[in-house]
Amino acid sequence: MDIIIPLAGISVGIIIPLAVFFWLYHEAKNKNETILEISKNLDDPDKIERLLSIFDERKKEPLDYRRGGLITIFVGVGIYFLGLFALGSFF
User: Fold this and answer.
1) For the chain, which residues make up each domain, given as ranges?
2) Secondary structure element (H or E) that encloses residue 71, with its range
3) Fewest CB atoms less than 10 Å from the CB: which of 61, 67, 70, 72?
4) 42: how many CB neighbours lie within 10 A of its CB?
5) How confident is the model at residue 14 (pLDDT cuts 50, 70, 90)?
6) pTM score, whole prediction
7) Are 42 and 48 in contact (CB under 8 A)?
8) In terms of Cα–Cα distance, which of 47, 51, 49, 50 is closest to 34?
């Protein structure tokens, strides 16, 4: 009976990433099939380009690495102080 909790923890750690991968795969697959079906009925290339631009999820803005670095620094400092105060001299 003592082994059920560790096995449940291990299996949840495996099942959740696989479920997310499966979900994202089918979401993208259905979206691509929808675009293909709509484009079969359109004759104007301009309308097809507009359709593709609607479904395009890429950001148009450049990445700001300073913001990401600042967030990483403060998360690291927060984890350090949490460990320092929670675990004391062990950390």
Assistant:
1) 1-58, 62-91
2) helix 65-87
3) 61
4) 12
5) very high
6) 0.43
7) yes
8) 51
Exposure string (b/e) for 68-90, b if CB count within 10 Å is 16 or more? eeeeeeeeeeeeeeeeeeeeeee
pLDDT reading at 55 higher than 70: no
Element (H, E) at 34: helix 4-41
Tokens of 68: 């990401």
Tell whether the torsion through CA atoms of 4, 5, 10 and 13 is positive or negative.
positive
In one letter, which amino acid is 47? K
Residue 77: the pLDDT is: 94
